[in-house]
C-alpha cells in the first residue's frame, strides 16, 4: 500500500542493557494485568453512562447522547496534556501513579453521589429528583475521571511497549512489540466484556451505588498490581532541563517544522531527533484526519446503540425473567476482540509474513484501511436493523408506547456489534501501533495521545452532529433522535455515517499510498 524509502532510527536513549533484569514480557505482564482491571473500573462507568443520565438524572435522549459524547471527547483529548507532562517532567511511571490516585478519588465520589439518588435501580421511567448540587458533584467526579484517563491513556500501553528492547534493525524486536500490542488489547477486552455485561447488569438490577463501588474496587486492584511490578519496569527518563511550557514550545517547533536555533536543553534534545521527525504534523495529519469518521462511528456504541437496545425484547429466554441490560451488548465487541486477536497474532500474521515478507504480516496502514471498510459495513447493517425495528413498532401498533418492549429480539443487533469488534481488532490496535511507532523517540506518550485524540475529536464531532441534526429535524417535525425512539429515525443517521465512512476509505487510501514510514519495517 505504501511506497518510499524507510528511514532507520537510533535505538531509544532510555533502553538499559538487558543484563539489568528489567523489562521484557515479565514486566509487560504487570502492565497488561493493570490494563485489565483498569478497563473494568473505567468501562463500568462509561458503558452504561447514558442509562444513568436518562434514568436517575432524568435527561432527554439527545441531551444525554450529546453529554456522553462531549465527556468521551474530553476523555480522549486530555491525554495530549498528560502525554506532554509525562514526556517532559513526570515520566510514564509517575504519570500512572497520578492516574491511579485520580481514578480512586473520582470513582469514590461517583459512588457517594449515586448513593444520594433513589435506591430503586429501574429509574428510567420515573427519574428521581436531582438537586443542582448533586448534579454538580457528579459532574466534578465524572470529569475528574476524565483527567485520570488523561494520564493513564497515553502512558500505560506505552510503558508496556517500553519493556521491549527497541532495535529497528532487529525483526524479532519489532515482531515482539507488535505482538505485545495485540495481547495487551486481548486481555483489556476481557475487562471491557466483564464491565459492559457484568457491571451493567449490577447497575440495572442491584443498584448504581453497588455498581460504581465495584468499579472503585477494580481500580484499587489495578493500583496494587501496578505497584507490585515496580522493581521490574524499564522506565524512561523524561526530558530534563526545561519547564513544561518550554517543552510544549519546543515540541510545537519540531512538530510544525519551525526552524530556529535550539536555545534550551529540551530543544536540543528534541533537535537531536532525525530530520525525518520534523514536520510531524504535516506527515501524520492526513492519517489522523481520515480516521475521524471511524471514531465517530465508535461513539455510537455507548450512546445510540445502547438506547436502541433498550427498546427491544431483552429477555434471556422466553420463560425466564432474566433481562439482558442494554449496555451488555457492547460485550460482543470485546468477545470479538478476544476471539480474533489470538487468531490474528498466531495464525494470520505468520501466514501473511510468509506471503509478504513483512515482519508484522501486513503494514500498519493496510490494517487501518481494512478496519475503516469494515466499520462502513457495520453502519450499513445497523441501518437495516433499525429500519426493521421501526417496521416492527408500526406493525405491532406500539409507535406511541415507547416503554413497551417491541416484539423483536435483542439479538438482531449482534451483527453490528461483531462487525465493529472486527473493525476494532484491525483499526484500534493498528492506530495505537502506528502512532507509537511513527513519532520521535522522546515523544512516545505524545504519539499514543495523538491516537487517542482521534477518538476524542470523533466524540466531539459526534456530539455536534447529533445536536445539529436534532435541531434541524425538530423544525420540520419529529427529531431523528426523539425521546420516543419508535418515532425517531436513527436509520437515517446510520445511513449518513455509512456514506461518510465510504468517503473516508477513499480519502485514506489516497494518503496511505503516499505515506513513507519513519522506521524500518
Automatic annotation (TrEMBL):
The keyword Transport does not apply. The chain crosses the membrane at residues 27-50, 62-84, 96-116, 136-159, 180-202, 208-228, 284-302, 322-344, 365-385, 417-436, 448-472, 492-512. Pfam families: PTR2 (PF00854). SUPFAM superfamilies: MFS general substrate transporter (SSF103473). The keyword Flavoprotein does not apply. It is a multi-pass membrane protein. It is found in: Membrane. InterPro entries: MFS_trans_sf, POT_fam. Its main location: membrane. This is Major facilitator superfamily (MFS) profile domain-containing protein.
Amino acid at each position: 500500500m505504501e511506497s518510499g524509502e524507510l528511514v532507520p532510527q537510533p535505538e531509544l536513549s532510555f533502553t538499559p542493557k538487558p543484563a539489568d533484569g528489567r523489562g521484557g514480557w515479565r514486566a509487560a505482564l504487570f502492565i497488561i494485568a493493570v490494563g485489565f482491571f483498569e478497563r473494568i473500573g473505567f468501562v463500568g462507568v462509561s458503558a452504561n453512562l447514558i442509562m444513568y443520565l436518562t434514568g436517575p438524572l432524568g435527561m432527554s435522549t439527545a441531551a444525554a447522547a450529546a453529554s456522553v459524547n462531549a465527556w468521551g471527547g474530553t476523555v480522549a483529548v486530555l491525554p495530549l496534556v498528560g502525554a506532554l507532562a509525562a514526556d517532559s517532567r513526570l515520566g510514564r511511571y509517575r504519570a500512572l501513579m497520578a492516574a491511579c490516585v485520580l481514578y480512586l478519588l473520582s470513582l469514590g465520589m461517583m459512588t457517594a453521589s449515586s448513593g444520594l439518588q433513589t435506591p430503586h435501580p429501574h429509574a428510567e421511567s420515573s427519574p428521581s429528583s436531582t438537586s443542582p448540587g448533586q448534579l454538580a458533584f457528579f459532574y466534578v467526579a465524572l470529569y475528574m475521571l476524565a483527567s485520570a484517563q488523561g494520564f493513564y491513556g497515553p502512558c500505560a500501553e506505552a510503558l508496556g511497549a517500553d519493556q521491549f528492547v527497541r532495535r529497528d534493525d532487529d525483526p524479532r524486536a519489532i515482531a515482539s512489540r507488535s505482538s505485545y500490542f495485540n495481547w495487551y488489547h486481548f486481555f483489556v477486552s476481557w475487562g471491557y466484556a466483564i464491565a459492559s455485561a457484568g457491571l451493567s447488569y449490577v447497575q440495572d438490577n442491584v443498584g448504581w451505588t453497588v455498581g460504581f463501588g465495584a468499579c472503585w474496587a477494580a481500580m484499587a486492584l489495578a493500583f496494587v498490581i501496578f505497584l507490585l511490578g515496580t522493581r521490574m519496569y524499564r522506565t524512561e527518563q523524561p526530558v530534563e532541563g526545561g519547564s513544561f511550557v518550554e517543552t510544549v514550545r519546543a515540541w510545537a517547533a519540531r512538530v510544525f517544522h519551525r526552524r530556529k536555533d535550539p536555545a534550551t536543553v529540551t530543544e536540543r534534545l528534541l533537535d537531536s531527533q532525525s530530520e525525518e521527525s520534523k514536520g510531524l504534523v504535516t506527515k501524520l495529519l492526513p492519517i489522523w484526519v481520515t480516521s475521524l469518521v471511524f471514531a465517530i462511528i465508535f461513539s455510537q456504541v455507548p450512546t445510540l446503540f445502547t438506547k436502541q437496545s433498550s427498546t427491544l425484547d431483552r429477555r434471556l429466554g422466553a420463560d425466564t425473567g432474566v433481562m439482558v441490560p442494554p449496555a451488555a451488548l457492547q460485550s460482543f465487541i470485546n468477545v470479538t476482540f478476544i476471539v480474533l486477536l489470538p487468531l490474528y497474532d498466531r495464525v494470520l500474521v505468520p501466514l501473511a509474513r510468509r506471503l509478504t515478507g513483512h515482519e508484522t504480516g501486513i503494514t500498519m496502514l493496510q490494517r487501518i484501511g481494512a478496519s475503516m471498510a469494515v466499520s462502513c459495513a457495520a453502519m450499513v447493517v445497523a441501518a437495516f436493523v433499525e429500519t426493521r425495528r421501526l417496521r416492527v413498532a408500526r406493525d405491532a401498533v406500539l409507535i406511541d408506547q415507547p416503554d413497551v418492549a417491541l416484539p423483536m429480539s435483542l439479538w438482531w443487533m449482534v451483527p453490528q456489534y461483531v462487525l465493529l469488534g472486527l473493525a476494532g481488532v484491525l483499526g484500534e490496535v493498528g492506530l495505537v501501533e502506528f502512532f507509537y511507532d511513527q513519532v520521535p523517540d522522546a515523544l512516545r506518550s505524545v504519539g499514543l495521545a495523538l491516537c487517542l485524540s482521534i477518538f476524542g475529536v470523533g466524540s466531539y464531532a459526534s456530539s455536534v452532529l447529533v445536536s445539529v441534526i436534532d435541531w434541524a429535524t425538530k423544525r420540520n417535525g419529529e427529531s431523528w433522535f426523539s425521546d420516543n425512539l419508535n418515532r425517531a429515525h436513527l436509520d437515517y443517521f446510520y445511513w449518513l455515517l455509512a456514506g461518510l465512512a465510504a468517503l473516508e476509505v477513499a480519502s485514506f487510501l489516497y494518503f496511505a499510498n503516499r505515506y513513507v514510514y519513519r522506521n524500518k519495517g
